[in-house]
Amino acid sequence: MPIIEEDDAAAILFTSGSTGPAKGVLYTHGIFNHQVRVLQDQFDIQTDEIDLPTFPLFGLFNSGLGVTSIIPEMDATRPAQVEPKNIIGPINDFKVSSSFGSPALWDTVSQFCRNKNIQLPTLKRIIMAGAPVSGKLLQRFENIVTEDCKIHTPYGATEALPVSLIDRQEILEQTWQFSNKGEGICVGRAIPKVEIRIIAITDHPILEWEEAIQLAPNTVGEIVIKAPWATRTYYNREDLTKLAKIKDGNSFWHRMGDVGRLDEKK
């Protein structure tokens, strides 16, 4: 059996294609190893848990985390069209403790729960990602899950996941009032080992970090990140790799393709 190295190719994952043609992102074994460790650390995932992944990648992570997976009957490419009973039933029947899903999926499920007065008492963790999460959606869970259930809304992308983290309580108590005033969606604080910078917006490649114009706090610009689990290349697309990566010595910055700002909080 061949020896697998950290830099050996492990998988090609495709971006959603929501902002253009889907791109093949090359994952190495080292990237997967980093992601498994950071997910375990940040979400306190234990091996005796039962998870219901509504996104296939998180089902793969469960194998590395030693977590039992309950696979729901649904089309993972159309989360908003999920049949709520196919999520609610397995959660309550198998005492699911954790579940990952898009805001569109949880919007459908939570509305059904509210209308039918259904609770999900075994859930102690919900992870919502893939699109902005509204305070209205988070508020709806007040009578669906227990007070002990943590609802996390991490920020990231196929090329770099996760990047930052915030939870339901902090959003509702501190940040959503500013989002309602048009100040954007707060995506939390950088996860340990992740660096985040804001640079001047440009549609052109930036070959070296010295060429990037870094912006001051509270200035809107392009989000760039550096992390051990950021992917290095797009498969067979050197042009897109050149556009998305900025060389910085022996490392690199990934251009997230999003605009945002850093405030002065740490």
Roughly how many Å apart are the termini? 46 Å
Rounded mean pLDDT score: 95
Fraction of helical residues: 25-40%
Helix- and strand-based class?
alpha/beta
Runs in which pLDDT lies below 50 for 5 or more consecutive residues are none
Number of helices: 7
Which strands sit side by side, in order, in the main sheet?
4-3-5-6-7
Radius of gyration: 19 Å
Based on Cα principal axes, name the global outline. Answer: globular
- In what range is the share of β-strand residues? 15-25%
Question: Main beta sheet, described?
Answer: 5 strands, parallel
Count of strand segments: 14
The string of secondary-structure elements, in order, is EEHEHEHEHEHEEEHEEEHEE
Structure overview:
This protein has 266 residues and is an alpha/beta fold. It has helices spanning 29-43, 56-65, 85-93, 103-116, 135-140, 168-179, 238-244; strands at 9-14, 24-28, 50-53, 68-69, 98-101, 125-128, 150-152, 155-157, 160-165, 189-190, 195-199, 221-226, 245-248, 251-260. The chain has a 5-stranded parallel β-sheet with strand order 4-3-5-6-7, with helices on both faces. A 4-stranded antiparallel β-sheet has the order 11-12-14-13. A hairpin with a 2-residue loop joins strand 8 (155-157) and strand 9 (160-165). The protein starts with 8 loop residues before the first strand and ends in a 6-residue tail after the last strand. The model has no long low-confidence stretch (mean pLDDT 95).
